[in-house]
Amino acid sequence: MPVIVLADGAEPGGHLTIVPIMHISTDRDHSHHSIKGRVVHKGPLVPSASHDFILKATIEEEKCGPQETSSINVVLLGMLASDFSQAVNRGDAVTASGFTVGKSPTARKDRRHPFNLLLSGERAVIRVCPRPPGDLTTPQEAPKENLLPPAAVSSTPKYTYVKLGNLTPGVVVNVYGVVVFFKQPFKSRGSDLCSSLKITDQSEQKISCSIFCPKMESHPQIFQIGDIVRLHKVKTQPYKDSLTLVTTFGFNALTFSGMVGADMEPRSSSRVFHFGEEDRRMVTELRSWLAAQDLLAPDVSVALSAAQPKMYFDLTCQLLAKAPVDSTCTLLRVWDGTQCPHALLKVTVDSNIVEGPTSFSEEHEKLIANVLVYDNHVQSAQQLKPGDFLKIFNLRATPGSVKVPGLSSSQVEEVNHLCFHLHGGTAYGRGVRVLPGNSPDVQELRRTMDAFHESNEEKRSEVNDSAMWDVWNTPPESPELRCDHHIRSVSLSELKRHEPGGVHHVRTRLRSYEPRRLHRTLKLYCSKCDCMQDVPDDERVASVLADASAEPSGPAGSPPWSLSGQVRLAAHTIEVHLSAQLTSEGRSKELIFLSGCTLQDARHLAATYHNVVPVRRSGGGDLALLDLSAPFLFRGRRSFYGCKRCSEGAAVREVTVDRGEVIDEKVIAEAFGVQLMKFVLLLKFRLQDAADDTLDDVFLWRDAEFFFGVSAEDAAANQQAQEQIQQTLETLCPPEGAGGEERPWLDLCLATYSARESDDLESARTFYQICHTSAREHQKKKFWSIFKEWQF
Asked: Are both 514 and 585 inside the same structural domain?
């Protein structure tokens, strides 16, 4: 992917969520995140035998607290390193996305972030806004002698664009236009691939364009009619009674969504390009003009769950596996996270020629569709790799036929089955394209797929044991037994022979723990219905807020007990309601209701106003709470959730308090009729004693906060608390290869209990729960033993 060069003071943003550098961790999924900062160090471009080039840089975040880790090392590989070396200078503002996280080998030496970022491959993107000429100051750093002089900073290129109605023959121009017709790239008579499109603009002149480039990625990445393209270095040529545009030396293209309000992330045919405020203005103007025109054909994108026989449609999906059927046909096995309502054809091919997995789980197999790609599209299919995200244009849902490849005479014909065909030719934009990982279509697809995986995890549990889920999800109350810590220790083999219902001491080591991803240990627990659930991630919460903002609403009205107004944040307007009777006690007493806000807006205001409630407009125009999949309340860095099952009738109501009474989450939840859920920590341990006996199914839950010396609520909002938990686990259970002798001995108090894994009364098993035990004491003992050894 490219290094995107911005200009004119543009912010190097992007549609992905920007996370603080201090929150970067190997325990988090950063596939939908980006970081933002300034380049304070750029190393030399070094040739590498395995990656062509390698370059190391340091990015520092602005406006960080004095105790926060604000800088992180970034390692770039391959052509991205080469592009970064040419396009980026020290002091430039950048955002980076598509990175992976690893431990930094130089963290102790340079005192920077304990992890570093690795950027390589197709998903990695660097967006850069060059520093103003002469501005050599970097964050928290005075100018140094080895900084580049102002003359070394490359000047920002300026381009002139011609309206399509003002074109004249025989000149090389740069143009913007809206796509009203396109064909995917196909093999020309020469060595190039050819794609054709027709564009228009406010002049209402429609101009045909012929693009000749040897590589697929050099062509404009057009995904639908209504996309906006920017074409550089195209030449006007007469054709019949009109003009056409053809590519010349230096040609490159950018493509944008034509939807009003869509992000400005361009799809590029070049690795390095200029994109400034003038470009933003032109794209915005074309989007506004397009919205008032009747140019766009109906959207024919359809999920597999909506596919019907004989339908032609566009499909966004992920490629799982592929295989050649014969010289004119290739099989693509794809899915989009939804299940087709019709029986699908089972295409049989030799497993030895399949690229990708040859089999899948029963649940996954139900969602996989077989797509047969014919004729000129076979060559494009050969370039696809399992794992690619695809958009297949003009796909046909074909009813079953004995002539379908793979349906041999030995197979029973399925009368009502469907098979999906991508026929030859380029009519109606027919073809298949790989979507970039940061495409909005891919982000939406990932959300659908994540929902499927989460649903499966709820069935199988995180330890891949479906029978364990009920116990794992809702461990029972700790037995009402107290431990005097003078009980003699028993071996694990003795413990297994005891009947459930007692408390025992064991001396063991921790062999493993689950989940390995620390954020998965954090759960939401409802004390009323005794249910437990995962904490929704930022993407899920942002989606709920976005859906609420997009919902149609009735006429706006304000509650009689609130003051209403509007604020403008992040280039959009948010409706604000302020509870009037709470204002006299200061900001900490104010209750803020936000309508039409994003997750970023809510957190921004929560940093100042302690009680922020996101709401929506109901059909009657009244304020209503959002779906409880999102927090019903933000307070500083903390978010509070309600139980869907126990919060029936929850609604926005007046909050009344006595003078001097503290307004907290409990008061607000009670006023709204919301059953407040509590953050808890839940882990499962595997223990091993001196006799090498092991014990599974050991839960840490009720006393988890005492065990780690950290509250679950702090762990949900505080990086330092998360690091304390991680440090404790790494001390008790070092990574593989550290050696068993390095695992400390633990004196644990275990409560035993019996639980059924299903409705079968005979399926009861014995489980164990750690109680009355603090890991901090073990850490102190280990510290003093090391200290004494060092002394002597």
From this structure: no
